[in-house]
Write the structure tokens for this entry.
Amino acid sequence: YGAGVLTTAAGYGTTTAYATATGGAVAGGTAAAMQTYAANPNAGLHEYAFGVGLGAGFGGLLPVGGFADLGGSLLGGGIEAAAGGDFYGNGLQFGGLVGGIVGGGLSNGWRAVAWQGGGAAIGGGVGYAYGGDASSALLGANLGSLGGGIAQVRYQGLRGRFDPKRIVIDIGGEGRHADALNVNPFRVTTTTGAPGRPIPNHVPFDGKRLPFGDRSVDIIHLENSPIRPDTIAEIKRVLRPGGEIRLVGPEDVSASLHQQIADAVGGRVFQTTVPTRHGVPALYTNIIVPAR
């Protein structure tokens, strides 16, 4: 899921997204393991599993947060050790808490800071009630912050998916995307699933004439459908600033057409190819338009 967030929201290529998400997960999990040990050197396996799971989930979704959590933990522990204290002391935990919240904010803005701060407050209270000391409270705050960061990303994704103000269209679509309006001159399916079924969310137009206002559409899907000059012009007209175009087609014929759309809307292009059973790889193109 984290790689998908980076691909579609941050605009990373697929390979970079998976590598970054994996690195963030490892960093976040490592930081959580260190914080668990700092709170209780005799912690049980279930306590490590819970902490590392939260840390890895947080770092996979917000890699900058995961790396900052680990960096803050190392810095905080190092400062405390340099001052004559224990590396695995409260300094490590406090540094990780601050680093994780700052990193989450750098990734997802003030909303992430608010969610993580709220999670830290709740977790800190629970930790103190459970352990009765500052170290337990700090561990609870760290884990609560991680949980808050994960919850914020998931909530943001669900809110975007079901936001009634968001317009998603699939040109030539037959129901592959549950949240999309399917712009198709035919009323029944011809290529998706069993033929002859009614197309859900059906809009009886085609790509040459999209029945939407200027700069009103958030996401446009176009998969294995004809791309003509008038279709490109309509896509440019209806796509809002900050919108996204998601294209799929055979690599041998689609590369130049996808680039024509990107040139028309002035967007950033991120592409990957996927082997198919037919021999010709499928080209997946994401075009992210600046929010101007």
